[in-house]
Protein: Metallo-beta-lactamase superfamily protein
Organism: Acaryochloris marina
Amino acid sequence: MAQIQKRRSQNVTGDLYVDSTCIDCDTCRWMAPNIFHRDGSQSAVFVQPTQEKERLHALQALLACPTASIGTVNKPTEIQQVQQSLPILIAENVYHCGYHSEKSFGATSYFIQRDEGNVLVDSPRFTPPLVKQLEAMGGIQYMYLTHQDDVADHAQFQAHFGCTRILYQDDISTGTQDVELQIEGTEPYPLASDLLIVPVPGHSKGHTVLLHKHFLFTGDHLAWSAGAQRLVGFRRYCWYSWEEQIQSMRKLLDYDFDWILPGHGRRYHASLEEMPQRIKECIAEMEATV
Ligand code: SF4
């Protein structure tokens, strides 16, 4: 729960506020950009929501905030409806789960709804309102983990849904040693006819991305930077090998996708024709920093 005593002075006057526990994960700013902005090294409310849609987006961000740093002076009467609005549809059968976890450094988690069995991509917070919604959407067959950092409450999701967790062997640690499917090798791994796991070492040694139809789930390998206004690999957060991350980025040119859905950073949508050019620009920028 956000605390009114910790309300940041940078918030505008009104009901909604951000407190000083914000970890600057950026989530509220892309979920409700008309309401939240960055002021100093943390978020703040710069406009109070007045429209119903703005209020919905602000309250969805409140629920998504990994540190419960967003609060309202008056208890929101519609919170149950907001809980029922998550996961949020992105396109077709792909959803943003919300409920980011501090254990995953606030990473974004996604849900893919499929007739053959649903997929949870990386771990959101294990929280009753979300669990209830995921049950109603058909449960979870696979819990695909892009890499070692964004695993959060994976064990609780597995225990509740009985899903098969998937993580590349090189990213297995003590906390994930029981993961049911530990893949290895340098070749892409076809999990199903519409689910291809592609190893992309760089950010971590065992990082992979998931291709589902024309959606690419990229974890911490690749994202859109709002500041730079282009696709980026995050060198500052490259824990294994920048050279290998560049090499892994080149591999993506072998695949067709028009959505990039990252763990950190912003999502990006372009045409199938435009995407390779954006990836090539990203590679060129990365190569310039070797
Ligand atoms: S979602 Fe929460 S932690 Fe993340 S930037 Fe917003 S207020 Fe800060």
About this structure: Residues 52-64 form the longest helix (13 residues). Residues 4-75 form a domain with the Alpha-Beta Plaits fold (CATH 3.30.70.20). The helical segments are 27-31, 52-64, 79-84, 128-136, 154-161, 242-251, 275-287. The chain has seven helices and 19 strands.
